[in-house]
Amino acid sequence: MLRAGLTAGAVAGVLSGLPSTVHALLTGRDPLAAARAAGNLLLPADAPAAALLAAGGLAHGVVSLGWGTVLAVAVRRTPPISRARAVAVGVAAGAAIAAVDLGLLAHGPAGRRWPLIRALPVGPQVADHLAFGAVAGAVLCRRG
Q1: What are the DSSP calls for 91-107, one per residue?
Q2: Would you say 15 and 131 are in contact if contact means Cβ atoms under 8 Å apart?
Q3: 140 near 75, Cβ under 8 Å?
């Protein structure tokens, strides 16, 4: 279960930033802003950009592995399902994760500590979370 969760979190973590990256490129925004914003979880917003990027990679990796493991535990408690259903369940889980990560933490009262995250457009960030859930669900379904 732990290995499946770490695998799902790693694969989903790598692929889940695609929606916000594409959005940034299409709208002329900085495609690395979300990575630096993730670094704001560990460093102050005025830290050097390179340090924020490095911290962002670390923070995103840890958060992705953690959520992947949570999803693996949740999936283990359900009967075997089809890949389509696993992806749908993953998308629903991604929505719940977005509600926690973005709604409760980043945009709630605690979010004042993370101005770089609060500055990101919310829609693409929600799309990233949905993508994370979909990919994690597919990986967990495949791993059985």
Answers
A1: HHHHHHHHIIIIIIIIS
A2: yes
A3: yes
Place of tokens 């709630």: 108
The pLDDT tens digits for 23-69 are 999 999 999 999 999 999 999 999 999 999 999 999 999 999 999 99
CA gap 138, 117 in Å, rounded: 27
In this predicted model, what pLDDT tens digit does every residue of 108-142 receive, in sequence order? 787 788 999 999 999 999 999 999 999 999 999 87
What distance in Å separates the CA atoms of residue 141 and residue 15, rounded to the nearest whole number? Answer: 17
User: For residues 96 and 122, what is the distance between their CA atoms, to the nearest angstrom?
Assistant: 15
Q: What is the pTM of this model?
A: 0.91
**Distances from the Cα of 54 to the Cα of 17, 19, 47, 115, angstroms:** 16, 21, 11, 18
* Inter-residue contact 5 to 70 (CB < 8 Å): yes
Phi and psi at 6, nearest 5°, equal: -65, -40
